[in-house]
Amino acid sequence: MKTKRKLQSDIPNAGPSSALSTLPVDALPWKTIKTTSFSGLDAGGGMMMLEELDDVAVEWVQDEGGAKKARFIVRLYRHMWSTADVQPAPNSKGKGKAKETKNGKRIAEASNQGIDGEDEDETINEDQEITGDDEIPSFSRVEEEDMNEVDQEDHLGDEAFDDTLLPQWSSIPLHPILKRSLSKLGFTKPTDIQARALPVCLAGRDVVGVAETGSGKTLAYALPILSYLLRNPRATTSKRTLSSLILCPTRELALQVVDHLNTVIRQTFPEKKGPPRISVGSVIGGLSAQKQQRILDRGCDVLVATPGRLWDLIKANDDLAAEIKRIRFLVIDEADRMIENGHFAELESIVRLTERQSRLSGRGAAEEEDPVFAATSSLDDVSARSDMQTFIFSATLSKDLQQNFKRKKRGSQKGDKKSSALADLLEDLVERLDFRDKNPEVIDLSPEGGVVAMLKESMIECVLSEKDLFLYYFLLRYPGRSLVFVGSIDGIRRLVPLFELLRVPVWPLHSQLQQKQRLKNLDRFKTSKNGILIATDVAARGLDIPHVDHVVHFNLPRTADAYIHRSGRTARAQNPGFALQLVSAEDKNVQRSLMRSLGRDIDIPDLPIEGGFLPKLKERIRVAREIEKAQHGVKKENHDRNWLREAAEAMDVDIDPSMLSDGDDPDAPFAKSQNIGRSGKVVELKEELNRLLAEPLIARGVSARYPTSGSKVIVGDLLSARGHPTLLGASSTSAYDEIQFAKKKKPKLSATGERRSKQIHR
Ligand SMILES: Nc1ncnc2c1ncn2[C@@H]1O[C@H](COP(=O)(O)OP(=O)(O)OP(=O)(O)O)[C@@H](O)[C@H]1O
């Protein structure tokens, strides 16, 4: 992970540098800055995090060999300064200069304007106030000073909140700062799950919450944690102690939860400088473990983590294990998915750290063989808190399992023939959880039929080979933010280049992409009004992407839960949403069993198709596929050569350079692929595709040349700009509105768009 760092200077002259003590650069009090998007990527796509350092000056010193070295002069205490030596990066530039402040003090500024400036010496102020204390302060002492300063400011917002401003929240005893945040966010009333869960969580109970997708479960568990932290501020003499652990199944979801919490925390005083009153850290796979370790060393109040990476860090760090043993809140978000992800072992191990001694000692000798025991045996003197609260939330938790949470009787529901290996694992987890509450509150608000009321579902039945065509039709016909779920990574790798060739703005998201790329693609999708994300189920759970207009099940999922979560990426927070199933004959059985699991018939209406557009779209797809096939050959060749190069390197043998070419990444945009487009055939096909893409798409019966004639007169649409932006003669109805008119009973579909269109066209 790349971290950008920014120096901010507002310090008086630091005095003779010889009098300063020196700290390693990583020990300086860097502060993480909130970026505009949750992934924190810059325009170049490289930066994952921005850190800022206040009160710092830079001086350049020459060592004996004449090399220039930067020295940061940093304020650690009000009256104490320290330096951190860093080597300038090649070509890096920087100089320090001083200016007068209003009160006549000289202020040193760090800049990056060149190292050969004449003002270098001015970073040193003879008037520097030195305590005479040569001892290097520890980082926690730096924080101590910070915290004392911040605390005075932090009382802002603690005064009582006027409940008449937010009457529907008045019965929920949240800290006034949170009420102010909710008011600023425009959350005028709690969602149903919040209204039910918050009072119970705030009363100190354990809660298992099941509620539909997009219903605000994150705040249902997070607000009680934040409220507790605001009401029980940390001691000012220590570094932050971890009070809450939130475990999430996917990296994207974990980052989103961090973002969600920070939005609430920072809402009240967005302009406030200094460390936040509550600090939220994250530990997820795919990003630098070192950086994450540093955040942990520095201390945070709430940690959001994926189990795999967290367990890796725990194994290497007894202090972290001890902190987790002592947490006040444990949250498992989307517990069922965590187990599906194959993270059961890590999840179970982490959960075991939070067990009370009385339970652990009951386990006897077998425990000593256990890897968790081995990893944490040095922590015997640290005992888990007796007042820890556990919150489990998901949109899908089977009724059987919910009962087990209540009864905590292992195996009470086992033997049920529907019980799968996954369900057994979940039951094992339930058994492992040491609820402090004898009777955890189970709140089940899951909707009938699984999906939310604001979701409209529809389907297109077609032959397997025409799914691409109907997806293309749908994306053109209903512009908007669409999330397309595909059953395999190979499927995504086939579709993305195809749609890129068709100039549809598509981005892939799957587990084999680098984490950086995953976040980048998500960000692009989030910020593009008509963007299309083609994803595996890695995007199915929890992601709260604003205004996803459509979810398309290009391949149907295997389980009802996956269908619920995928479809739940749209129709969130009481907004309308639309889900489309592309169903081939081969999918029929899966569809039937899916609907049966959801307790429904196949009562899904067909999406009306305006068939006049299909022949031209079909032709475009045919040519794009041919290009893709030809390019795929070149890509594969590159891939093989790359493999050859790596194998040769591994064996330490030389290979004829003519046998090698630059490697290729199967997920790289096609346009960037090496050698692609060289062959004459591809050039010809691309010209043909360009020509086809330039041809207007006109509905049957429409005369583009004579808009006032033809069987479909479009002059009115043209004049009022009511018509469709790309499909001439089509209305601009949304997919959501469209299916109100759809017929329930559909005609049998044929493989050709031509015949089908006659049957279905309204
Ligand atoms: N009280 C509220 N009023 C209005 N909007 C809210 C409220 N609480 C949360 N939201 C918003 O609702 C959206 C969905 O919330 P969240 O992501 O927590 O849903 P969820 O139930 O966890 O969904 P999923 O099951 O898919 O993970 C978010 O954008 C959130 O900001």
Structure in words:
Residues 198-415 form the Helicase ATP-binding domain. Its EC number is 3.6.4.13. It is found in: Nucleus, Nucleolus. This is ATP-dependent RNA helicase. Keywords: ATP-binding, Helicase, Hydrolase, Nucleotide-binding, RNA-binding, rRNA processing. The protein starts with a strand and ends with a helix. The protein has 762 residues and is α/β, with parallel strands linked by helices. Strands 13-14-12-15-16-11-17 form a seven-stranded parallel β-sheet, with helices on both faces. Among the domains are: 171-269 and 276-359 and 382-408 and 421-444, Rossmann fold (3-Layer(aba) Sandwich), CATH 3.40.50; 455-609, Rossmann fold (3-Layer(aba) Sandwich), CATH 3.40.50; 699-742, no CATH class. The chain has 25 helices and 25 strands. Strand 24, helix 23 and strand 25 (727-728) form a beta-alpha-beta unit. The site of adenosine-5'-triphosphate has 17 residues, from helix 4.
Overall geometric form: globular
Mean pLDDT: 73
Low-pLDDT stretches are 1-22, 33-48, 75-153, 409-419, 670-674, 742-762
- How much helix is in the residues? 25-40%
Quick description:
The chain is α/β, with parallel strands linked by helices and 762 residues long. 36% of the residues lie in helices and 16% in strands.
Pick out its properties.
disordered N terminus; binds adenosine-5'-triphosphate; 762 residues; alpha/beta; Rossmann fold; 25 helices
Helix and strand topology:
Elements: E1 2-7, E2 11-12, E3 21-22, E4 31-33, E5 47-53, E6 56-62, E7 68-77, E8 80-86, E9 95-100, E10 106-111, H1 139-154, H2 176-185, H3 192-202, E11 207-211, H4 217-231, E12 244-247, H5 251-267, E13 280-283, H6 289-298, E14 302-305, H7 307-315, H8 318-325, E15 329-333, H9 335-340, H10 344-353, H11 357-361, H12 366-369, H13 371-376, E16 389-394, H14 399-407, H15 421-432, E17 441-445, E18 455-461, H16 467-477, E19 482-485, H17 489-501, E20 506-509, H18 515-527, E21 532-535, E22 550-553, H19 560-567, E23 577-583, H20 588-597, H21 614-651, H22 680-694, E24 697-698, H23 715-720, E25 727-728, H24 735-738, H25 753-760
Parallel strand pairs: 1-5, 3-8, 11-16, 11-17, 12-14, 12-15, 13-14, 15-16, 18-23, 19-21, 19-22, 20-21, 22-23, 24-25
Antiparallel strand pairs: 2-10, 4-5, 6-7, 7-8, 9-10
Helix pairs in contact: 2-5, 3-4, 4-5, 7-10, 16-21, 17-21, 21-22
Bound molecules: adenosine-5'-triphosphate (ATP).
Residues 187, 190-191, 194, 213-219, 395, 542, 544, 568, 572-573 line the site of adenosine-5'-triphosphate (ATP).
Keywords: ATP-binding, Helicase, Hydrolase, Nucleotide-binding, RNA-binding, rRNA processing
Domain DEAD-box RNA helicase Q: 167-195
Catalytic activity: ATP + H2O = ADP + phosphate + H(+)
